Amino acid sequence: MTIQGSIPEVADPVIHVSELRKTFHTLDAEVIAADGIDLAVGRGTVTALTGPSGSGKSTLLHLIGALDSPDSGTIRVGDVTITEISARRLADYRASIGFVFQSFHLLATLSVLDNVTVPLLPRRGGRRDAARTRDKARELLAAVGLAGRENSPATKLSGGQQQRVAIARALINEPSVVLADEPTGNLDTHTGEEIIRLLFDLRDTYRTTLVIATHDFDLAKRCDNVVHLRDGRLTTEAPQV
Ligand SMILES: Nc1ncnc2c1ncn2[C@@H]1O[C@H](COP(=O)(O)OP(=O)(O)O)[C@@H](O)[C@H]1O
Ligand SMILES: [Mg+2]
User: Fold this and answer.
1) What pTM was computed for the model?
2) Closest Cα to residue 203, out of 189, 217, 221, 224?
């Protein structure tokens, strides 16, 4: 494990962030959530994003995932400089990466299987595509340990199982990058540990690059890199999580 400073040097960066800034304006305050972030993440690595609550972890993940846009700075993911492309290409980009949230964000009225195929819905294909998508979703559900649960209503599952569904959903587009925002934050220690083991296993199987925002120091210690945030800046101080 290395504690990464503000000048990143990695051999084969798949994520490259430069001079990233984002300020939120509320009615009576301004919050600088990203204050000039430089970051590089190597292909196939697992990076822990640590830091106290409010330090900007979610903001950074949202910006990298194009769920929000920065005020300035550049973000390159693979060959795409996402801070320079059109809204249409940004939608394609968004669909090409995986996102796992703390609170699962499953659709309550849909089955487990349909939740996994949701990211593919906008790309309406023929019937054969639909069949292929469902096969792929079944394969991923088996990979996350949920074979046999395909037709259950998603919200009838336990928290740990719901997060497994969310992870399968994140993988349906075969993303090269998966961003996970405190994926164990709503789970008990044992279940959280299983989810982390699953994420590491999937990284090995699917060769994805993983960035995990987490408060869990035990988890951070197992990652290839640890990036510590404080007040929207990367710091080199020892993580206090
Ligand atoms: N949509 C928003 N509107 C206003 N302030 C926000 C918004 N999102 C985040 N913030 C603020 O930005 C800062 C960083 O938040 P966040 O990225 O959620 O931190 P973390 O994930 O590390 O807890 C916090 O002060 C938070 O209150
Ligand atoms: Mg957060």
Assistant:
1) 0.91
2) 224
